[in-house]
Amino acid sequence: MSTKGPTTRRRRVAALLGATVLALTVGGALAAPAGAAPVNVDFATHCIPPAIAGLPPIDGTTTAKITVDNASPKVGDTVTVTYTVVKPAASNPVDLALPADIMTPTGKVALGGAQTGSVTVAGPKKNDPVPAKGAFPSFSMTGTFTVTAPGAITLSPGDYNIHTSYIMELDTPCTVTNPPAPVSETVTATGGQTNTRAIQLGSASGNPGDSVTVTGSGFTPGASVTLAGRSGATQTADTATVTANAQGSVSGSLVVNDRTTTGVVAYEGGSWDPDTGAGPAAYVVVDDTPVPDGSQKLTTTVRAGTLSMTQAGDAVALSAVDYGKGGASTGALKTVTVKDFRGGPAGWSLTGKVTDFTGPGAKIGAGALSWTPACATKAGSPSTCQAGSSGTVGTSGATLASTPNGTLTGGEFTVDAGLSLNVPEFTPPGSYSGVLTLTLS
Asked: Where would one find the signal peptide in this protein (predicted)?
């Protein structure tokens, strides 16, 4: 018979679970989207408690549902998926109540039908207090996937993991006993197929009036395809027409006269459309016009530069929060200036990831930091800056800003972001710091 009394057992559980040093909720980004009416499904689940708990595996039933923000997407659209565990497979196995905001869930949603694979989903560190021996609360996780095929795509709940931060960092993985779980949601994709058209040029340069060979694939069999020169974002007068064969391949020649030509495209239909076209493939006209007697030919060169960034500073002081109240510790990212002077077709992406915030014998998880990005483009820049989505930064990172690929890209841009660190009400007093690393590529 064990001689350990209730007090000893309670201390053991307290040592296992600890006290949340810094738990936080990232607001807004993971709210459940509005989609078609979800279907709750039940499925057998095998959960493994942390080994240090000394508890046996838990075989139970999980009740879950899947919702989407768009049940009728087109091929190429991005669909946001929310996986809600309505009733987890197990309850709190100990006789100690668990505080709010210590659980961070992650999981997978299985795709089937017209498109297979899985969607990674994650949720905020947000939960109601859990009574001793009480049922674990419901929680939601979100993620996205890009539609690549038309037809009915089924979504089924998959494996999930509950990470707890309560003195110790512990995981409780739960797997679907007999995968796949029942289908909870179905989306029907329309809009044809992904554009797979591509072209190659026989040479990358030529004299004015030279012909360049253009070969391509992925076009609609039997379609009339226009070959055309481009000067930046504008089509030139140099065009030719070919017909795609039964395999969707094309082959033809384009006479290039316009000395400002920067590339060649091929497209179906009456005008250029990126959804029915390919290119541009880079092409340069070498101006070899003879110099008349008594004349001098003047030539200059525009040198390509680099992609670079600078910061207005390397330290941000977030606002203080009160012990016993907690809440949002806010501030602003030091302005980042991006200069893209490469002059090519490539855009850029600026991403960031953050470490945990460490303090006096405690830490605030990296998932506690969220941002609201903003980006401005200097007048005259060929590219237009796009701000990233508001939401969690975390250790896996998020996009702060970007520009798309194009015929001719470049320019100067300023990037800012509002920062918010959600601090639990009884975080130990002291100074906490983390490092936010920005990567430009």
From this structure: 1-31
Tell me the Cα Rg of the chain.
29
Q: How many Cα atoms sit within 13 Å of 54 on the Cβ side?
A: 6
Beta carbons within 10 angstroms of residue 273's beta carbon: 11
Residue 195 CA to residue 209 CA, distance in Å, equals 31
Q: Closest Cα partner for 265 from 197, 209, 203?
A: 197
- Over residues 45-85, the pLDDT tens digits come to 998 887 777 788 989 999 999 999 888 888 878 888 889 99
CA distance 391 to 146: 19
DSSP letter for 196, please: -
Contact 155, 185 (CB under 8 A): yes
SS3 content of the chain, % helix, strand, coil (to 5): 5, 45, 50
> How far, in whole angstroms, is CA 376 from its chain's centroid?
21
| Amino acid (one-letter) located at 128 | D
Other CB atoms within a 10 A radius of the CB of residue 142 amount to 24
**Residues 38, 66 contacting (CB under 8 angstroms):** yes
Beta strand ranges found along 275-358 (DSSP E): 277-282, 284-285, 307-311, 327-332, 336-340, 348-354, 357-358
Long-range CB contact pairs, 235-244, < 8 A, 24+: 235/265, 235/272, 236/260, 236/261, 242/214, 244/219, 244/220
User: What angle (nearest 5°) sits at the alpha carbon of residue 330, between those of residues 319 and 389?
Assistant: 165
Which domains, ranges and CATH numbers included, belong to the chain?
23-189 (2.60.40), 198-285 (2.60.40.230), 307-440 (2.60.40)
Report which residue type is found at 189. Answer: A
Cβ atoms of 401 and 417 closer than 8 Å: no
> Could you tell me if 25 and 125 are in contact, meaning their C-beta atoms sit under 8 angstroms apart?
yes
- At 122, list the tokens: 């994650």
Nearest in space to 137 (alpha carbons), one of 162, 165, 169: 162
Position with higher pLDDT, 256 vs 22:
256
